[in-house]
Amino acid sequence: MVAALAAFWPDRPETDWAYTGGFAIACGALALALALAAFAGVRFVAFQRLHRLSPWLFALALFLASWEAVTAKLGLLPLPFFPPPQAIVEVAIDDWRRLAEGIFASARLLATGYFLGAAAGFVTGVAIGWSRRAGYWIHPVLRFIGPLPATAWLPLAFFIFPSSFSASIFLIALATGFPVTVLTWSGVASVKSAYYDIARTLGATQRFLVLKVAIPAAMPHVFVGLFMGLGNSFAVLVVAEMLGVKAGLGWYLQWAQGWAAYANMYAALLLMAFLCSGLITLLFRLRDRLLSWQKGLVRW
Amino acid sequence: MVAPIASDHAVRGSTLTLREVSHRFDLEGQPLPVLDRISLQVGRGEFVALLGPSGCGKSTLLRLVAGLDTPTAGALLTEGREIEAPDPSRVVVFQDPTLYPWRTVWSNVALGLEARGLLPTHRGRVEDALRLVGLTGFANAYPHQLSGGMAQRAALARALVNDPKLLILDEPLGQLDSLTRIAMQAELVSLWQRSNFTALLVTHDVEEALLLAGRVIVLSDRPARIKAEVLNSQPYPRHRGDPHFVELRREVFAHLGLDEAW
Ligand SMILES: Nc1ncnc2c1ncn2[C@@H]1O[C@H](COP(=O)(O)OP(=O)(O)O)[C@@H](O)[C@H]1O
Ligand SMILES: [Mg+2]
């Protein structure tokens, strides 16, 4: 296995070396590092994790190599739309300031909207699940307005709210809040009545029943809602940035497309993928920590 | 041994009075009578067993005693006052252990103390209760890591930690293997002797009822009525092979209409 790695990986720079120097050197250095790591794996346990990843790394190298080949080398794909990988690296290096600003703006907007939406959704969900009166008043509103995509509010929101930033926060919160509300509610409503009986016979107050029985028992549902809300919030974030907020990765995408700067677009897309995937991973980590008592959790 | 929370040792068991208690469920619009005019007087510190076929309404009766439901007719009193709501002085060990899956064994056992705000001052009781049921090594385990019998023992510890005046046991040993079961029966008796609480045990096991209780109330099929009462004043520990015990068992089986088999 290790021998195979050493034999296969160094073949990457050979496809690349004739092109953009920096990219080839970077690839070469990476390949060398990986090859070294592969050898080191024989001796050091820490590097042996790489073995599991090696088929993927190999496939990635193959993909990069063929991408390089069909764009820069053979020119099989129309150029402005499909730039070679080194062009994207170039963008990342030249335009890093604007990209970093974009990431920061997007992250700030998303985080604010998501937390507000998740918190509001959670509280509303618990209220509907627990109190009949809250259910009576909130449920119809939820049924009527909830299924409406948050983006449908976009024109109205930008008109009502003082700034496009606050309007976007509202939209993201709305998109997050609906699934979190519904799933928290169903989680609280499906708590086994025996759980309450136990606590009641042991002298629990209403407060204890809500905080220490209903909410922890509903947490697996709440997390499903949080995941759905996160997915929704990404969609709304991009749309809001494209249409209203003049900042963030979504806006950058739009802007790059306007200038036919396709390499910039790919760079922004890539960053966005990292951002979204990173946040999902973070949420999974949080869930694994809070719900470690559950059997058979899906690993991300 | 779980030490009492209160110090008034001698008078800790409470009395229980059932006056013509009847209960009915609604099953798809059809009334389902489950309890039929049950009258019962349980003295302070007594150990009473309710024996009846499954489905006759034993668990229903215990829920009424616990204050989780109110009877359709009749009244339940403890210490002369009507039972209107659950109270931590009347603790139930349910048929199903129902531990909270998100809590460790330790914090499941600590539940009652935590709910009443007594945990900071009585932490030691949790360990005592765990030791009593033999789960010391599993304090940090989660319920899904326990066997059925261990879960049931944890549920027993969760009840005992509250130092109840009336301990209500709904077939609490039903899921245990026979060895653990015998050990737990002896443990229950010595626990009851030491702490003086009043015990109300529901079971469908004739021997268990006679081994543990001073009085066995035999219930009929649904709707449950009191068919007979068998006193057992034998000292503890009791032995299954003892001629008087065998005689009592025959008597109880006769009340259940099963004399032919014995
Ligand atoms: N909440 C309920 N609603 C309707 N019927 C019930 C309910 N709880 C119990 N019953 C019925 O009452 C009868 C007695 O139940 P239970 O008290 O659990 O019997 P057991 O003596 O086995 O403990 C059963 O026929 C059961 O179906
Ligand atoms: Mg029962």
Automatic annotation (TrEMBL), chain A:
GO terms for biological process: transmembrane transport. The chain crosses the membrane at residues 17-44, 56-76, 109-129, 141-161, 167-188, 209-239, 259-284. It is found in: Cell membrane. It is a multi-pass membrane protein. Coiled coil: none annotated. PROSITE patterns: ABC_TM1 (PS50928). One of its GO terms (cellular component) is plasma membrane. The keyword Membrane applies. Keywords: Cell membrane, Membrane, Transmembrane, Transmembrane helix, Transport. Residues 103-284 form the ABC transmembrane type-1 domain. InterPro entries: MetI-like, MetI-like_sf. It comes from the Bacteria. Belongs to the binding-protein-dependent transport system permease family. This is ABC transporter permease subunit. It comes from Bradyrhizobium rifense. The lineage of its organism: Bacteria, Pseudomonadati, Pseudomonadota, Alphaproteobacteria, Hyphomicrobiales.
TrEMBL record, chain B:
The keyword S-adenosyl-L-methionine does not apply. Keywords: ATP-binding, Cell membrane, Membrane, Nucleotide-binding, Translocase, Transport. Residues 16-246 form the ABC transporter domain. PROSITE patterns: ABC_TRANSPORTER_1, ABC_TRANSPORTER_2. Pfam families: ABC_tran. SUPFAM superfamilies: P-loop containing nucleoside triphosphate hydrolases (SSF52540). The keyword Translocase applies. GO terms for molecular function: ATP binding; ATP hydrolysis activity. Belongs to the ABC transporter superfamily. PANTHER family: ALIPHATIC SULFONATES IMPORT ATP-BINDING PROTEIN SSUB, TAURINE IMPORT ATP-BINDING PROTEIN-RELATED. Involved in beta-(1-->2)glucan export. Transmembrane domains (TMD) form a pore in the inner membrane and the ATP-binding domain (NBD) is responsible for energy generation. This is ABC transporter ATP-binding protein.
